[in-house]
């Protein structure tokens, strides 16, 4: 699968497709993708750093560095490296307007 | 959890050490509770992809496929038969007076223990390089997890850098999987690698396997490099600037960098459980103190890379030993430890050889320019750290409160060793004299809502 994002799929490409929303836009992922894989299959970053100008795209992928937290339209934030993407999930790269 | 044995034994971590410990207890008729962050047991090295993935164990784990399969079965069988309680996708965030605070999907629950076996493993030991805060910079472990558990490369053109067995292994695995690996940059020079060689003879087959993997990298592999800076634009990494062993400037275009210098033991829970720490000169980090079986006192036992960085094979043995010690202390008949202790001593000789051959890049860290970011969580710079030595002296926790290094959401896991190195250089002392950051609960970020849900 040719994608425009950061990651390159090297194996396991025949899984079922599913759809999720990223900042309101519909995106495609594969069943079993983590949120991180799903977001970086079509994008280059997960979020903006709170302390500098740069974008962040995760770092350790094992739940230790906490670099990959992303927001959902509703509900709790997710650690993108450990949460699996699900059909219809609504993800955000920035906090929602109503975020306190 | 009424079905568990009394007294209750809790194991934290279901990698090679945790699985072996659990299996040893089950065999002796004890029903342990195993708490692990993964969705299924295996740990990082023998991590299993989510349901629906079809690569075989051989494709996933290479030469270690049989060990991986055996360990998975060793855990899955008693878990299915109700001989152990498995709390998956759960993080222990605090240890207090015989009670663990466990964060899972349903909120925070408290699990009490009479005996605690910590098998928390390790993560990459990373050192800052100018520009490493950019999107597209990952740990070597991350590159391996992405390939193993997701079947992906984290970039179109990859540069790997650092030193240690994982550098070669991840490089060879990515090349084999079809990724475009532009360069593998080892900061350890050849003469240094040779110096560790005689100890590596303790495991000749493992050493030879490493050399065979290295051969697969061909001309991509460069020893004795100097890492200059990671170039980036608004989207992330664009190139790696480095100098080869001959001092020539090189620029390698890439959009992904994987970095790591061997491993850093995950010790936060051991710290909260009251373990005593000593500074290890070979591994250049603070490690919890145990007897040879893994006893740390107060009913706490430690096993695996979270206490001694011996790798997966050593972790299996240490897990068995810790469980045997626990059984003996509970008055159960325990399996004999003699053969395991001999094996462990050999693995330790090998591991200390590795630590010498592929050292922590102390000089590189000490030479960081002031603008280099040391803490990726909050973008604390080398200059900030040096300045706080001038304000408040060289004690690690004072540096932490003055500069905020180690106070971000990773809680110092990825900056502590570099920060301590900078402080030691600035203060003119040895790193062990700087001390270590005190572990603080919660050891993982926990939403307030999780505590509310638990009542």
TrEMBL record, chain A:
Transmembrane segments: none annotated. GO terms for molecular function: iron-sulfur cluster binding; oxidoreductase activity. Gene3D superfamilies: 2Fe-2S iron-sulphur cluster binding domain, sarcosine oxidase, alpha subunit, N-terminal domain (3.10.20.440). The keyword Phosphoprotein does not apply. The keyword Acyltransferase does not apply. It comes from the Bacteria. Keywords: Oxidoreductase. This is 2Fe-2S iron-sulfur cluster protein. It comes from Mesorhizobium tianshanense.
From TrEMBL, chain B:
It comes from Mesorhizobium tianshanense. The keyword Oxidoreductase applies. The lineage of its organism: Bacteria, Pseudomonadati, Pseudomonadota, Alphaproteobacteria, Hyphomicrobiales. PANTHER family: ANAEROBIC GLYCEROL-3-PHOSPHATE DEHYDROGENASE SUBUNIT B (PTHR42949:SF3). GO terms for molecular function: oxidoreductase activity. Residues 8-307 form the FAD/NAD(P)-binding domain. Residues 374-451 form the SoxA A3 domain. This is NADPH-dependent 2,4-dienoyl-CoA reductase/sulfur reductase-like enzyme. Keywords: Oxidoreductase.
């Amino acid at each position: 699968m040719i994608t425009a994002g950061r990651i390159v799929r090297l194996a396991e490409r025949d899984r079922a497709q599913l759809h999720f929303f990223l900042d309101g836009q519909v995106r495609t992922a594969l069943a079993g993708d983590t949120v991180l894989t799903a977001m970086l299959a079509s994008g280059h970053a997960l979020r903006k750093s709170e302390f500098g100008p740069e974008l962040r795209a995760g770092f350790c992928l094992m739940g230790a560095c906490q670099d990959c937290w992303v927001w959902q339209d509703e509900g709790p934030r997710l650690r993108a490296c450990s949460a699996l993407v699900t059909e219809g999930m609504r993800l955000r790269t920035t906090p929602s307007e109503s975020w306190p | 959890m009424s079905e568990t044995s009394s007294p209750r034994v809790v194991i934290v971590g279901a990698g090679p050490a945790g699985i072996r410990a659990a299996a040893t207890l089950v065999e002796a008729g004890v029903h342990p509770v195993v708490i692990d962050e993964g969705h299924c047991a295996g740990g990082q090295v023998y991590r299993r992809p989510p349901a629906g993935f079809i690569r075989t164990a051989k494709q996933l784990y290479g030469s270690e496929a049989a060990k991986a399969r055996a360990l998975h079965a060793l855990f899955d069988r008693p878990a299915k038969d109700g001989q152990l309680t498995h709390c998956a996708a759960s993080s222990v965030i605090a240890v207090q007076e015989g009670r663990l605070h466990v964060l899972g999907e349903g909120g925070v629950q408290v699990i009490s223990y009479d005996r605690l076996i910590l098998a928390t493993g390790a993560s990459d030991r990373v050192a800052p390089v100018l520009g490493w805060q950019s999107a597209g910079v990952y740990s070597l472990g991350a590159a391996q997890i992405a390939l193993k558990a997701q079947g992906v490369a984290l970039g179109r053109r990859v540069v790997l850098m650092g030193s240690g067995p994982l550098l070669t292994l991840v490089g060879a695995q990515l090349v084999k999987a079809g990724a475009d690996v532009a360069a593998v940059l080892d900061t350890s020079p050849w003469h240094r690698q040779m110096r560790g060689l005689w100890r590596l003879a303790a495991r000749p087959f493992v050493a030879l396997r490493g050399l065979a993997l290295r051969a697969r990298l061909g001309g991509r592999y460069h020893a004795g490099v100097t890492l200059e800076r990671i170039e980036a634009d608004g989207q992330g990494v664009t190139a790696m600037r480095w100098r080869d062993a001959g001092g020539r400037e090189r620029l390698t275009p890439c959009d992904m960098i994987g970095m790591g210098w061997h491993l850093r033991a995950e010790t936060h829970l051991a710290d909260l459980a009251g373990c005593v720490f000593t500074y290890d000169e070979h591994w250049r980090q603070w490690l919890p103190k145990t007897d040879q079986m893994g006893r740390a006192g107060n009913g706490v036992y430690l096993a695996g890379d979270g206490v001694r960085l011996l790798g997966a094979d050593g972790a299996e043995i240490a897990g068995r030993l810790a469980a045997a010690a626990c059984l003996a202390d509970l008055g159960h008949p325990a399996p004999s430890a003699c053969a395991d202790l001999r094996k462990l001593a050999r693995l330790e000789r090998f591991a200390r050889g590795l630590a010498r051959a592929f050292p922590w890049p102390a000089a590189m860290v000490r030479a960081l320019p002031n603008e280099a970011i040391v803490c990726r969580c909050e973008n604390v710079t080398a200059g900030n750290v040096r300045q706080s030595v001038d304000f408040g002296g060289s004690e690690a926790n004072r540096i932490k409160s003055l500069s905020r290094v180690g106070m971000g959401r990773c809680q110092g896991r990825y900056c502590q060793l570099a920060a301590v190195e900078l402080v030691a250089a600035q203060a003119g002392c040895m790193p062990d004299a700087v001390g270590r950051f005190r572990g603080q609960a919660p050891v993982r970020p926990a939403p307030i809502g999780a505590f509310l849900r638990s009542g």
